[in-house]
Amino acid sequence: MQRILVLPGDGIGPEIVNEALKVLDRVAELEGMDLEIDEGLIGGAAYDAVGHPYPEATRVMAREADAILLGAVGGPQYEALERELRPERGLLGIRSDLGLFANLRPAILYPQLASASTLRPEVVAGLDLLIVRELTGDIYFGHPRGIELRDGERVGFNTAVYSESEIERIARVGFEAAMKRDRRLCSVDKANVLEVSELWREVVIRVGEEYPEVELSHMYVDNAAMQLVRAPKQFDVMVTGNIFGDILSDAAAMLTGSIGMLPSASMNATGAGLYEPIHGSAPDIAGQDKANPIATVLSVAMMLRHSLGQEEGARRIEAAVGRVLDQGLRTADIQSEGCTLVGGKAMGDALVAALN
Ligand code: NAD
Description:
By secondary structure, the chain is an alpha/beta fold. It is about 40% helix and about 20% strand.
């Protein structure tokens, strides 16, 4: 039996997770999987219920799970909370608690959606890139950090920090991923300005000596942002730090036409993983049945593939997404002329039906 922990979270989180679970239930039935599915609290929902965004009960269940499926966290009603109690702290907490240091974010443009991209179809059609983002270090976790009084005014400060071993292990994930794909790895940094990036580049080059089959290149983050929108198909795998990866992966997401289509996996050294859509809790559309559940459904596919050893189930889900797009069904975020606009629930039902 395999244990899955489900953390719906806030905003559209519960809606999209609900649709993804309908798909998972049906796949489990079709593939004869033996799954135990538990549900837990995280983010603002956890704060509302028990006063903390990452409660002890969730921590215990997360450590025992083979894989975790998360919706999204956050919302305007939590913005006034002190930093340690904000929903995002729950997410940062679970990532660091489980040692989820590697974030894999594919950006694939489904041919059926080529016109949904803001870029010309010939620039993006057939796009298939993978961003490997370091997830537990960098300026998001570095010390010292804070806001303090200096010379009569408040000063805010954070520290970007990476150790050699942290860079080495994420570089290795990047090279290994490239080995399974087109064997091209682009390391993104800001080595012309930041010492932390200087070390990053040095260590990536050193690790690269172990992967002579992989063509390694380096790019400054500002150029990488430009190249991503100019000629995104030049990339196979990109590896980068936490904050650069945060920003670049959202840009890559937009290339595909919808943030509502993209899954992600965050893995630790043991193969356990946290699977979540790359988008946030979308409070602007929460509760209106407008949210696209496909990113979460594809996160389930990644979960089956990377943590549960169920490749067949993963493929079944991915094929169902293609089939539903072929049928012309679209949620509002990916709607285009001539297609049928559906809500999140109807999209979930269509995906379940397309699994057979
Ligand atoms: P967002 O990703 O929630 O939304 C950005 C835009 O994309 C919105 O217009 C939204 O309606 C749309 N969108 C997002 N997901 C969609 C989906 N599945 N289907 C259709 N449209 C979708 O980002 P934001 O608005 O900057 O942040 C909202 C909240 O989410 C904030 O509290 C933020 O902190 C939080 N957040 C959480 C995560 C996470 O849980 N991993 C990630 C990013 C932001």
